Amino acid sequence: MPNAFNTILDKLQPVIQELKDCVGTNQSLADRYAVIAQKTSMRMQQQFREID
């Protein structure tokens, strides 16, 4: 029984690591897109003020 459990853990560990890496990548992309969205919003507001 312990051998079966260890075998399952050995197979799961790379999958868990890959998921962890994907989550980190997604968080990094989300942070970058949030900065882009904020800059876009600020520039649009600036243009609206210039028009008024």
Features:
mainly alpha; 52 residues; single chain; 1 helix
Describe the structure.
The protein has 1 helix and no strands. The chain has 52 residues and is an all-alpha fold.
How are the elements arranged and paired?
Elements: H1 2-51
| Main sheet attributes: strand count, strand direction, barrel closure | none
- Structural class category: mainly alpha
Helices and strands, in order, run as H
Poorly predicted ranges (pLDDT <50, ≥5 residues)?
none
Helix content: over 70%
Summarize the structure.
This protein has 52 residues and is mainly alpha-helical.
